[in-house]
Structure formats: C-alpha cells, structure tokens
Amino acid sequence: MPLRDGGGMTPLFQTGNAVRVRKGSPPGHIRTPFYVRGCKGVIERVAGEYRNPEELAFGRFDTPVVPLYRVRFQQQEVWPDYQGNPQDSLDVEIFEFWLEPANQEKT
Predict the structure, then answer these.
(1) Which pLDDT tens digit goes with each residue over 40-62?
(2) Quick check: is 58 in a domain?
(3) What is the CATH classification number for the domain harbouring 66?
(4) Is residue 30 domain-resident?
(5) Rounded to an integer, what distance in angstroms lies between the CA atom of residue 28 and that of residue 57?
(6) How many CB atoms lie within 10 A of CB 73?
(7) What is the DSSP code string of the chain?
(8) Using CA atoms, how far apart are residues 4 and 104, in angstroms rounded to an integer?
(9) Domain for residue 11, yes or no?
(10) How many domains in the chain?
(11) Contact between 32 and 20 (Cβ < 8 Å)
C-alpha cells in the first residue's frame, strides 16, 4: 500500500504515456535496473506514491513521497538480439525522477 503523508506529487505520467528511462549513473544506492536505462516503454499503471528508496538507503526518512510507475518495455527494446515472440514484454517499477517523455531529447 502506498505511503501517504497528506498528499504527494501529482503524477507527471498517466497510463499509456510513452516514456524513456534516463541514462544517468549517480553514485550510491540506485533502484532502477541498468539494463532499462535509455530504453523506451509505456506506462502500464501508476503504482502509487512511496518514499524514495534511493534516499531511504542513507537514512533520510523525511523526504516526500514520489510517484512510482509500472513501465512496460518490449523485449526487443531492452535486448536488441532478442529472438522470442515480438509481443513479449518486460514490466519494471520505476520512480518518476528516472523517467522522461519518450519524445524528449535523451538525458
């Protein structure tokens, strides 16, 4: 169940929006899998609002809640040499600060 603290952020993305995962490699605890960074996917659902685990890992418990999304990637987007069914997909839960609109210039 999402943790609420009297209101969080309004989600930037909605179900069906095309997004790209940022390619950054900041130091410290990172929850977003490396293999999806730079990949394009589609928001499958807004999963709720939670405290940022990348901050919680350092004992910072007073941070605001952040939208979390389930993002669906086509397997061939993630693994270019994938030989399986072209309809196969991979779902990953990713926090909003790792996402950008798919049509935006890569960061």
Answers:
(1) 999 999 999 998 888 888 888 88
(2) yes
(3) 2.30.30.50
(4) yes
(5) 9
(6) 22
(7) ----SS--PPPS--TT-EEEE-----SS---S-GGGTT-EEEEEEEEEEEE-HHHHTTT---PPEEEEEEEEEEHHHH-TT--S-TT-EEEEEEEGGGEEETTSPP-
(8) 30
(9) no
(10) 1
(11) no
Q: Is the pLDDT of residue 9 over 80?
A: no
Residue 12 lies in a domain: no
Q: Which pLDDT belongs to residue 87?
A: 96
CA-based torsion, 20, 64, 92, 70: positive or negative: negative
The structure's pTM equals 0.84
Query: What domain range is 69 assigned to?
Result: 18-101
* pLDDT tens for each residue of 29-41: 678 999 999 999 9
